[in-house]
Amino acid sequence: MTEKSRLVNILDKVLPKDIPGEIIVLTQHQRVSRMLQNNLVQGSECEKMLVRVRVEEGGRVGEEATNVFSLSSLRQTVARARKLAETGRPGPLILSGYKGYREMSQAPAATSTQSPQAQAAMLAPLADLAGKANLLVDACLSAEIGELAIVNTLGLAAHTKAAFSEAKISVASTTGPGRGCGYACDRNAEKLDVIAPFFRAAAKCQASERPLPLPAGEYTVILEPAAAADLIRVAAKIFFDGRAFLERRTPFAQLGARLFGDQLSIWDDSLHPQGLQMPFDFEGVPKQRLNLVNRGIIQAVCLDNETAAQLKTVSTGHAALPDSGSGPIPRHLAVEAGNAMIDDMIASTKRGILVSRFHDISVLDSCAAVITGTTACGTLLVEEGKLTAALPDLRFVQNLSRALSNIEMTGDETKLFGGLWEGLLVPALKLNRFSFLTGNTGQV
Fold first, then answer.
1. Is this model's pTM higher than 0.90 or not?
2. How far is the C-alpha of 101 from the C-alpha of 160, rounded, in Å?
3. pLDDT mean over 400-419
4. Helix count (H) and strand count (E) of the chain?
5. What pLDDT was estimated at residue 350?
6. Core-most of 2, 69, 214, 400, by most CB within 10 Å?
7. What distance in Å separates the CA atoms of residue 326 and residue 334, rounded to the nearest whole number?
8. What superfamily does domain 3-206 belong to in CATH?
9. Domains of the chain, residue spans
């Protein structure tokens, strides 16, 4: 019996037969190895499991969850969900019927079997490289395996596994405030390169020593892919959340509005061959490409079964993680690349700022798309087409729609960021008139 058959058969035994119901099982096994200030430290392993049951009884919906997977626990969870339906929200419980989905291999053995010793061997060279350069390196190397199964009373029986490996690297100076960060991820741990991200982080660290003050004002910014990804993640929640759109909490009232510059096109595609693929969402709806922004114009928002029903349409396949508390948002975004290299962006800038990362971004006003945060991991001044000085971390307060309307240049290649059940492909961006305060002045 296959893993899918075994798991689905267990769930089918406890699935209610007399009322509409759904059971979802989500598992995660993560192994992490760390380096702290050039020294390998104790790694860790953790396992998580979530079982969520939803039922409709008496015209109301009951929902219950557990982290114990056994027949007795499952039956008790179903019973509690039925009891909670007595005082639950009004129905109906909208379920996904079986429509078929693309079978795909997302769990390479190299990731699922990677040992702590193998992870330590990957990190070990970083200590030697950092020591020779008089730098301090912190690194985190993780490998995750996840499994997702969904069954319901409409005959849905969906199952998939996924693996994900990533390296997060931070390099600090031993003589000053210089700091740089590097990142890499892949489904296959054997393909993960930790050396290249280290060298990028080390170079940024050395370039960001002795920062100079900068007056507050509007500046041209060159966002490296990691910084651009930080902004796009926030944009996903502000602009593309179908529940927020339904509740009129988005910066636009109707689709077809022009919110961004015509250089910006964004879509969600969990089947993208260069991304971190996923065959269906957390309600079992098959995934497909969804065009969100075309040349600056909002084309669509993300929907799950419930929001789609309220809008009298069908789900786009964006049901959220069961324990996330969020609405339907895109989890596999791609931003269309352009034709500029970062060197071109710098060379064409009279006075501006190169941003490596953003940190601690928060939304001040979702309807107005106003956000705040700080730069991080190396912020550099650009003058007359050259990097001339280091800057401190700078706080910004910015209208995100306006920022993405002021795109001057777009990078010619995308970089992958992600997680076990999500992925993001983003190029570098050059934006005009980005608003900074004078240094990191704390929370706004």
1. yes
2. 10
3. 98
4. 10, 20
5. 98
6. 400
7. 20
8. PmbA/TldD superfamily (3.30.2290.10)
9. 3-206, 211-436
